[in-house]
Design goal:
11 helices; Serine Threonine Protein Phosphatase 5, Tetratricopeptide repeat; calmodulin binding; TAZ-type domain-containing protein; signal; metal ion binding; 2 domains; CREB-binding Protein, Chain A
Amino acid sequence: MKKGALHLLVLSHAFSVLSLKKACINQLERYFLSAENVVDILQIARLCDAPRLSLICTRMIIRDFKTVTQSEGWRVMRQASPSLEQELLESLVEEDTKRKERTNRLEEKKVYLQLHEAMEALVHICGDGCRTIGPRDQILKSSQAACRFPACKGIELLLRHFSACKVRVPGGCGSCKQIWQLLELHSRMCSTPETCKVPLCRHFKEKMQHLSRKEEAKWNLLVSKVLERKGTISSISERRKFSSLKSVGSCRIQSNSDLHY
């Protein structure tokens, strides 16, 4: 059957022998697909109403497009069925677009995560003090435990640069511009500006009132994305905590059940 699976598929479809047709499709999917014959099998799958086999063939063509287009089956198909070639090319473009969109979404999430970590580190440094920077109203402790904020070191360097930079004008210093934007983002996310220890928090709160609608919309979108990322992280942490508690609970139940025997 293995050698004649393709011919048997055509016959089983023509005579409606469903069990044989299913077996042939299974054999073709598991053992026979290759870059050389996938175009031929795709065309037969479409003629024999085998949608799953057709989908598998299409995915294989997209995945190994360069090799498949060099096969004899592809060259024959281009002449005999230009519409199928166009359909496959469109599928390739669509898949490539989806892949780029997924990559862009992952990159965006990464940026929002970094901004969220930067906000946490900024509040931590200005409120508690860390490494070489202490809060304004406290003495920095010389012996501190390892910092748990991933962005702390980078924010610390930016703050130290910002405090000593002689340029510090819009567009004049890239590092100052970065910390300036981070301070403004913090201000928009801060709910306690009156007691906040982060520099310029109240200043940016007042500045918000004079922004154009377009600028305000851009900042609001950024804040919502960062907060959304924060919510995602919190929910993941909660799920992990619940999972660990559940596993501990099940262990305790198991231990208690063992005591009865």
